[in-house]
Amino acid sequence: MLQGTASHVGKTVLVAGLCRLLRDRGVRVAPFKAQNMALNAAVTPDGGEIGWAQAIQAEAAGLEPSVDMNPILLKPQTSPGGGAQAQVVVGGKVWATLGAAEYHQRRAELWPVVADAFARLAAAHDAIVIEGAGSPAEPNLLAVDLVNMSVARLARAPVVLVGDIDRGGVFASLLGTLAILSPADRWRVRGFLVNKFRGDPAILAPALAFLTRKTRRPVFGVLPLLGGLHLPEEDSVALDEAAVAGSRSAADPDGEGPPPERRVRIAVVRLPHIANFADVAPLAADSRFELRWVTRAEDLDGADLVLLPGSKDTLADLRWLHAEGLASAVTRQVAAGGRLGGICGGF
User: Fold this and answer.
1) Helix (H, G, I), strand (E, B) or coil at 104
2) Which end of the chain has the least Cβ crowding within 10 Å, N or C?
3) Domain 2-224 in this protein, CATH class
4) Beta carbons of 292 and 248 less than 8 angstroms apart
């Protein structure tokens, strides 16, 4: 089982990689993530809904995606009163819409769903590669956990803890996670992966030795920061970073794409409740386009196409567009001859 010190440390890609590695060695392998919070969803052949990440992992394993690979999917949205809640998808179907406290109170109803889904997968495969969610060491969530150490105990699985060195503080994060875990759960952590490294590995060696001395656990590997994968992101953390970074063009290592001034400039409005933002991934991967995520009216300037993506809460996002001045800016853009596109709720 791969668990992380936080969200967005690279667990999803690593699980997909392990699934493909095992599949290529002739192992019947399947991915499993008990609970996923994501607005990027995929549809299984029987019409169920799961996180997009598990669909990618299933493809890596050479399998059709199944609701058992992600039995609980949480899709964040805003309540009528303005509070945070989530649509809870269980076994591929909408089950309820709950706030966080209500959701945790219903753990007893949801745990059998997780256990049964894992049992079915385990019975049909030689190996299961399990992905955790966020961090396993949130003190306020340990008693209601459905996806991290509770699943490791269910599966009797050893845990590898993944940290993201590119963000900084990876060694404190790895040590701090271990310190918070109970002794029994700490025992399950067999070692570490340091992910998203760039630089000279020799410079890192003393820190790796320090971590091993401190924890008596090995560092199984230091993995490089991989660019150009063009995989859909699981959650909106990456979009927040992209909105800060501004414009971004696809990699063009062979120099075969058009020069920057001839690329089609696409401004995608980063709605607060954006859904299935992976829909624009093909544009981001194509060197003919320059894609930028925008949250301000002035960021639409110079765009050849303004794109309004799907929304999990269309009315709330429409109010936001008006409040931020983006609605009137889009109208002006079209009146001046600009192009406007919409996907799902954005349409």
Assistant:
1) helix
2) C
3) alpha beta
4) yes
- Assigned CATH topology for domain 246-346: Rossmann fold (3.40.50)
Backbone angles phi, psi at 200, to 5 degrees: -90, 115
Structural contact between residues 177 and 211, judged by C-beta atoms closer than 8 angstroms: no
* Cβ(234)–Cβ(52) below 8 Å: yes
Instruction: Name the amino acid, one letter, at 146.
Output: L
310 forms beta bridges with 275
Structural domain spans, the chain: 2-224, 246-346
Say if residue 314 is exposed, middle or buried (CB neighbours under 10 Å; 0-12, 13-18, 19+).
Answer: middle
pLDDT band at 247 (very low <50, low <70, confident <90, very high): very low
pLDDT tens for 167-197 read: 999 999 999 999 999 999 999 999 999 999 9
Residue 23: name the closest of 69, 48, 53, 58 by CA: 58
CB 343 within 8 Å of CB 308: yes
Q: Residue written as tokens 């993201």?
A: 164
